[in-house]
Design a protein that fits this description.
Number of strands: 0
Radius of gyration: 33 Å
Distance between the termini: 111 Å
Number of helices: 3
Order of helices and strands: HHH
Structural class: mainly alpha
Shape: rod-shaped
């Protein structure tokens, strides 16, 4: 009786290929590494978006400071923590100290 060699050989090759694929996917460079890389990519994309948002806000602030000269005065006084004569400063507990208004688009009070 003659055994069919080709189908048996194909079955052994398919089984070996399947075992190799499972071993590679379960190994350190397999699915876990792929998931880790996807997570890193997601985190880097989020950081990239945050940086883009901060850049856009700073560009908007720069344009506003270029257009409104009163805003420059307010910003300088806020950074240097200076107040004008006859200007009242309210200090609230739990809030950061700021002698000038936090919104540079508002004009200073007389």
């Amino acid at each position: 009786m003659k055994l069919p060699v080709r189908p048996l050989l194909y079955s052994v090759i398919a089984l070996a290929a399947s075992a190799y694929a499972v071993a590679e996917l379960a190994g350190p460079k397999g699915v876990s590494a792929l998931m880790s890389n996807w997570e890193q990519i997601r985190q880097l994309e989020q950081e990239n978006n945050d940086i883009r948002n901060r850049i856009a806000e700073k560009r908007k602030r720069i344009l506003m400071l270029e257009e409104q000269h009163d805003a420059i005065d307010i910003e300088v006084r806020r950074e240097l923590q200076q107040v004008r004569k006859h200007e009242k400063v309210l200090i609230l507990e739990g809030q950061p100290k700021s002698p000038a208004p936090t919104d540079p688009s508002t004009p200073p009070s007389p």
